[in-house]
Amino acid sequence: MRLDLGQLVSALARTIDLVGIDEVHHGRRVAYMADIFAARLGLSVDQRAQLYRAALLHDCGVSSTEVHRSLVSELDWQDSELHCRIGAERLASFAPLAPLAATVRWHHTRWQLLQTIDLDEGDRLRANLVFLADRIDALQAQRGLSANLLGKEELQRTIASYSGSYFFPEAVEAFLAVSGGEAFWIGMEPHFLEENVLLPPDWQEETVVEENGLVAMAGIFADVVDAKSPYTAEHSRRVADVAAYLAERCGLAPETCRRVRVAGLLHDLGKLQIPDAILESPQPLDAVEAATMRHHSYVTYSILRHIDGLEDITRWACEHHERLDGGGYPFRRGAAALCLESRIVMVADIFQALAQNRPYRDSLPPQAVLGILRDEQQGGRLDGSLVDLVERELASCYRIALEGPRQETDAGAEEVRR
Ligand SMILES: [Fe+2]
Ligand SMILES: [Fe+2]
Ligand SMILES: [Fe+2]
After folding, report:
1. Residues with CB under 5 A from ligand 3 (ion)
2. Closest listed ligand to the CA of 67
3. What is the whole-number distance in angstroms between the Cα of residue 10 and the centre of ligand 3?
4. Which residue in the list 58, 271, 296, 381 is annotated as catalytic?
């Protein structure tokens, strides 16, 4: 299938940008600044496009709010290496984004140290430009964006003092040259940022994504989501496994099963926007918290809808909290509007969540999970034929929900699993 790489990068960037409560859009500001420096340094259009994408995605190795907070509040942070490594690994798993991996891998390494590492010249420069933009954003986050225009000289002095040690001297010069003007800072304010970070049309690039590539791409999103909270670790991957298994047992074509798997991987993207305290609450959610939680499947929809070619997957993913009686959310679609693939993702999501340990309860045994699905079906909310199928395949579904598929035996298992 053909997908637009620019649309994919933007969707992934929006996903990553959901992390961080007060400091949203960090990735976009870093891309905005890095590109301005690159233009000043005379980089080619191709190099700029590469840098821009890497800058948008540079924090794809982070998803806990806590880690994000350290990253945006300290100039040099001793554990910063880890998210660089994880991010680079994630990008390397999907061929069209693999060329960005080196930039992400080294985006917290001082310029002096970078000289000693065997690295392509372009990657070295891109990594340091991202580092520079990233640290400028960390420094400005400490003072609050609105104070930029008042505090820019101080920020310039701080950055200048790291020229040659942390940062490539010419990059620092580029920053000093462009940051004297108000426009540089005002352009980063939320109101203007959106229009300033659209990928220029000549940077759009159609890329052919193989079916397995689609799963690998969705796996990057899933890993970002699943890493957010220890309580939901692997939830997206295991929902995908159960959903693909059910789809196969329903007799759907292999290609459809694979797309159902992708919907499972992507279904909870919007959870990145939900505060950790709500996701990890040991008590039942109160009305306000529950209302916050009900945003997440809409957020999934709002991110995925911009990727042409993923329309069906987007629909199956964002409908996972809909119910056949029309009482679900966010669209309140009823049985007539909900197709089999959506119903499969719904059942797989509930099944996996019940089988998994959660902060408010322990993992439920198979019969108890089935009992809850049965109640839901009898209440008119879930598909009866799917609950029957789960009953017939209960042991397999349960094992897959906790451990994932066995490579040789379970249909729909992917070679790209990690
Ligand atoms: Fe960052
Ligand atoms: Fe969900
Ligand atoms: Fe879920």
Report:
1. 268, 349
2. 1
3. 23
4. 271
The fraction of the chain above a pLDDT of 90, given in percent, is 65
Cβ(338)–Cβ(324) under 8 Å? Answer: yes
- Cα(343)–Cα(349) distance, rounded to whole angstroms? 10
Lookup: tokens for 82: 């880890």
**Tokens of residue 189, six digits:** 């304010």
Q: What is the mean pLDDT of residues 120-147?
A: 88
Strands (E) in 201-333, as ranges, are: 206-208
Q: How far apart are CA 281 and CA 2, in angstroms?
A: 41
Measured in Å, residue 72 CA sits from the centre of ligand 1 at 7
- Indicate the helix (H) or strand (E) that contains 4: strand 2-4
Cβ-contact 224, 246 below 8 angstroms: no
Residue 271 is a catalytic residue = yes
Ligand nearest to the CA of residue 134, numbered in listed order: 1
Q: Where in the chain is the domain with CATH 1.10.3210.10?
A: 2-206, 210-403
Ligand 3 centroid from CA 123, angstroms: 37
Which residue's entry shows tokens 């047992």? 249
List of residues 6+ apart from 217 with CB closer than 8 A: 8, 94, 96, 97, 209
Give the residue with greater pLDDT, 63 vs 186: 186
- Using DSSP bridges, classify how beta strands 2-4 and 206-208 pair: parallel, antiparallel or unpaired: antiparallel
Encode pLDDT of 298-330 as tens digits.
999 999 999 999 999 999 999 999 999 999 999
User: Separation of 29 CA from ligand 1 center, angstroms?
Assistant: 10
Predicted TM-score of the model (pTM): 0.88
Architecture of the 210-403 domain: Orthogonal Bundle (1.10)
CA of residue 213 to ligand 2 center, whole Å = 24
Contact 301, 327 (CB under 8 A): no
CATH architecture of the domain 2-206 equals Orthogonal Bundle (1.10)
